[in-house]
Amino acid sequence: MFRYYLKLGLLSIRRNPILSTLMVAAIATGIGACMTIVNIDYVMSGNPIPHRSDVLYHVQVDSWDPHEAAEEPDLPPVQVTYRDGTALLAAKKARRQVLSYRSSRVIQPEEAGQLPFEVSSRSTSADFFSMFDIPFLFGSGWDVDSDESLEYVVVINKEINERLFAGVNSVGRSIVMNGDHYRITGVLDMWDPTPKFYDVNNQSFGDAEEAYFPFSVSIANELSSDGNTNCWKPVDEGGFDAFLYSECIWMQFWVELHGADEKQDYMDFLNAYVETQKALGRFPRPMNNRLSNVMEWMDSQDVVADDVQVLLGLAVLFLVVCLLNTIGLLLAKIMRRSGDIALRRALGASRRAVFSQYIVEAGIIGFGGGVLGIAMTWLGLQGIKGLYGDFDFVTKLVTMDWLMIFAAIGLALISALGAAVYPTWRACGIQPASQLNTL
Amino acid sequence: MDIGPIWRALLRNKSSFLLIALQIAATMALMVNAIAIIQERSRLMARPSGIDEENIFYIDSSSFDKDLEYQAMVAEDLDLIRAFPGIVNAMLTNSFPLRDGGWSQALQTEPGEGIDGTGTAIYFADEHGIETFGVDLIAGRNFATTEIVWADPEGAPDWPESAIVTRAMAAEMYPDITPEQAVGKVAYIEQDQPVTIIGIVDRMQAPWKSWAGVERSMLVPMKRGQSFARYVIRAKPGYRDEVMPQLERLLAERDTGRIIDSPGTITEARRMAYLEDSAMIKLLVFIVSLLTAITSLGIVGLASFSVAKRTKQIGTRRALGATRPSILRHFQLENFLISSIGVVSGAILAVALNMWMVQTFDLTPIAWYIIPVSMLVLWMVGQLAVYGPARRASLVSPAIATRSV
Amino acid sequence: MLSMQNVSMVYRTETVETHALRDFSLEVGEGEFVSVTGPSGSGKTTFLNIAGLLEEFSSGTYKLDGKDTSSLGDTERSRLRNEKIGFIFQSFNLIPELDIFDNVDVPLRYRGFNAAERKERIERVIDMVGLGSRMKHLPSQLSGGQQQRVAIARALAGEPRFLLADEPTGNLDSEMAESVMQLLEEINAKGTTIIMVTHEPKLAGRAKRNIFVRDGRLSSVEPQLQVAVGG
Which contacts of A341-349 are long-range, i.e. CB under 8 A and separated by 24 or more positions? Predict the structure, then answer.
């Protein structure tokens, strides 16, 4: 019977080509608008490191101003001070821990004719690469000892390796940055988490940094942060050392913990640490420490832009209008064919049969709308790229994966079938005899 | 005309008309809220930064030479730039309006800990600052050359004793006196370092366009830096695009121990600062137009059906003496009634949606007049959409009435 | 009253010309009850459409109440229909979504009467056809005979000089048909001119004069039954 209904559906669609096109177009436009925004929202709220997001925790300790919370409502600061970051790092109470900050450096190529250029860089402790499971093309990161012994080592990304060494294995060679020689220990393969979860407060959709070196070396060279620095208390005089000793927050601290017990133990450790600091006259606020895993952290930091959420709401409303449109057109179409339906009923079609016939027809239209909707979504994403193209990260947001493609077709089918329910129900209500005399 | 029977007929054919009305209502809710957002964004975008946007550009220099004589480099750079033809003035600073990155600090009217301060953006400036930014000094005086100090490049600076603030900053700190009277007042930075307000500028925005205190800024007579220098340069009208690359080359060639970033204009900074807003406006305009088109197609579709379905009835009416214009009016009136239900419920829906958005996303509430304007627009859209089918209805021959099929 | 002189009606398609009426001439006087019979496709309906100003004709003259209709525009024809002619259709043509009261109201609205006058007329004619208690019912809630009575009431509400009936009993069983015929005779007795198209010789015989149409012309051959009834 399904094939018979399919045939009837196609016939009926061919009989009213303009109307059918209109319905398919309405569904496709609605799906296109909705899926464009859903897609962006999906990428923005995506899990950047799915296999480890449950064991990576962002650490917050409340070292802020007694008179005012760092973030409303009563939340601890989003970054840590140098004092606290280095103390927590040195305690080594988690399986792994990473303290890092964003900065920039100038690479001075040694070959004649190549001009110096600036690179974005991250000054970090050694666990960064293993903890965030970063793929290497050549070599590896450095070990914890290098952090402590202030070794001038560096990890560069694939592009920099292409630029300086034409893509060959450069491990062991050295580069000059800001006048100092650094030995290359590794070259990263493509790695670009979206969103950039490990530092969402400094461009959450920006590119991953191009060069990485021990933060202890950067501190020794008095290299300050490129990212946000916030202070609640005046910094004492005394140059960079005073700044390091201040209550300014500018570094990100992450730990790796497996299971609730480890998390609880680490929380206890944090609380004990804060107690010791309180004894020193720091941490004037009530105890308020946080451990957030990757997705909790993304959520709490509102990584998805407000505009996207407003647009999502409007896009859903848009889809609703398109569906109301489709319901109206389907209803009109079915009511117009009431003679045909009454005749079929008179010839022995059950209500069920009439229902199936029209649901199949709606399904065909929905499928058409879904397929066309994918094209519309693609167009919509290109439009978004055109509008926001000056933000480099936008290209990351306008890619579609298979899940989104299936979601588009699924949403179109559900929408079309949903839209068909009421008109089809009305069709089933047509009495076999009612229409015959006016035929 | 004859509203009564049309209305009663509508009530008996509820579902298809209700669908149109619902569609109009949802369209209206979306339209009103989109317009509200567009209005708000346009208002934000229209705020002047206070500086001479068309003629200012900036050049960043990052030195990697470890033996850099920073103060000397800056002085020589600035002398070169200021002497360059087509330049009005230039200076070393940390940021500029629309840059979305800068320094902020709180000023308090009394010294001491735990006293509420007023946040302000800090721009490092010298005696050339007023002219370089092209801001209006409305009271007090400019910095004197002797007041400019070089700050400790690391940590917090030892703040200078004088400052120039914007009118909005003065009004926020001293709500009871005029900005002119604020000249000479002593405020406190870093809780207890005194700063005397020596001048007031009319308007100069902070670098962060979304900050609530965006109109509050302060110029301090200070130069600060170690390896990084940002020069803000004001060209004579019409010279900007010509001198910008020339100065870039001049600075890069003068000293090879540094990188000169490609210079940028404030015009470009404004475009980037409001890119999201202008993109949002374009998106919303597109969505609303598309939606209105879809809704009117829906009206055309359903009205066509309703005409086709009622051909016999229309013929009968014609046979009973209805003129063509009265058939046309019948369908237009019918559409007017449906649209009315749509726009009235749309108004309610729009307000509800707006209340939710105001609460969730901190949007400003809609201006009341958007609602009647949108109602009027949708009424007109409905009348235009139904005109085609209604005209076709009016052309139905009265002889249809005697056909028995 | 009604005067047609050499009226012709030609339908043209790309390849065929169909003469629905050829040189049709007819005079109907005040107060007559004329029946029009003829086989299917003979031109009965075309005659009725032209007589009722529903259709324009190709050539000839048609005067209604002394007024030449051939030069009239659509608005003027609509007004004439509205004021002078009442229609009764085979399939009633009631508007399904309007109740009985509003259905009868339709021509009066176009006539431009005020609300009080319309109400008075509607109630009077509905009472006359015996449906005073069904005023708020929808057509679908009435039997075929009752629906046709409503249609008659609608035709009469504007007090037309002419009543054009197209197979008024065609969709009714014989009992209902008889009551409708009686109603028409009563109306005629009060002075309204009636032209009734029918294919049933028995009904045609109840008219005061009978016209037979064949191939778009008035036929000289009188049908036998008419002779029998007339005799």
Answer: A341/A427, A341/A430, A341/A435, A342/A430, A342/A431, A342/A432, A342/A433, A342/A434, A342/A435, A342/A436, A343/A435, A343/A436, A343/A439, A345/A430, A345/A431, A345/A432, A346/A432, A346/A433, A346/A436
